[in-house]
Predict the structure.
Amino acid sequence: MEKSNHISDNIRYVGVDDLTIGLFENQYPVPQGISYNSYIIKDEKTALLDTVDAAFGQEWMARVRAELGDCTPDYLVIHHMEPDHSANIARALAEFPEMTLVASDKAVGMLSQFFEGYDFNGRTIAVKEGDELNLGSHCLTFVAAPMVHWPEVILSYEAKEKVLFSADAFGKFGVPGYEDGWTNEARRYYVNIVGKYGAQTQALLKKVSLKDIEVIAPLHGPVLSGDLSRYISLYDIWSSYRPEQNGVLVAYASVYGGTRECALEFADMLREEGIDNVVTFDLCRQDVSEAVSQAFRLSAMVLAGVTYDASLFPPMATFLHHLKMKNYRNRAVGIIENGSWAPVAGKLMAEAVAALPGIEIINPKVTLKSRMRLSDRPVMEALAKALAVKVKA
Ligand SMILES: Cc1cc2nc3c(=O)[nH]c(=O)nc-3n(C[C@H](O)[C@H](O)[C@H](O)COP(=O)(O)O)c2cc1C
Ligand SMILES: [Fe+2]
Ligand SMILES: [Fe+2]
């Protein structure tokens, strides 16, 4: 199943697959695992690019040794200091004492935060935007990418083989070789990990669009080659908070099933109005990171939530919190609320999304008192029609 992530005879892949982590960053389910990518460029000088997660130090070093043979690396380039990539820096320096670390100023500053008592003096070169690291026939040019995903992130571009080492950008959940069409798990990764920093990602895309790129080598998932425009245009869409497709996410959170029944019925009404892309999502049973990803994908959303202790049922409140954190914006939103004596869910959901930029609340609001009744149907139909007009516009 595993497809090789090697780039060429001279640019080798030495990353590892993590199929046991379960939750990436202790939060995001990764049923197809995740890879921590690392590469070696062999030339007059040899550069090792990034390390891997702490749990895989031994496996990684064995791969590095097997690729290098008798050679020792001259440089370890650190594109990103997050531990999933940096955890084995001290180990690598112990293994290759002559090696020099190459990283952004900020990354150099972070080294002692992660490796207390370790002396990095005289073992680092700080690089900034436009600096070059000459390896012989290969040469890395650095591109600053602050906040994609951390402030110290720097990318590098290798001109001879036209490779962009893109750090977390263009990474995805799922180990390389897992054929899932890339988009869904790349979107879920981007939106949840980097999503808040769309402006910074846009700035990065502008800079890299000036480069002649044939291969994108990220820190997670498959190396990308062939027609790269598809990946770049998806990144452009996600980072500018534009919908990828017209359609509606119907996200519901229901205690006893009343709101769920209404949400599913409402989704059918939307389909009858001619909307092809309708995704229903159970916020109590499915992972919120996928809900946020679908919210970014589609042009409209319906929130179906329950009143709970004069407030919002927590799975819905959590979803709204995640949307806000990821800078969700520029969408049409419909509201379905439920409550048995004093429903306030609708008001609270509407206030939460109305506070985000470019959100248009579509009326009428649907209010259920316990369960969907015949008398609720006309209001539901009216909301479905109003949303359909928006989505098709
Ligand atoms: C712990 C708890 C707290 C609730 N608090 C309120 C409330 O403050 N106001 C209200 O109108 N209904 C409240 N309800 C009732 C639900 O909102 C109501 O029964 C609703 O119809 C449930 O929808 P469902 O069938 O989709 O779960 C509460 C229910 C539970 C379980
Ligand atoms: Fe990261
Ligand atoms: Fe990462």
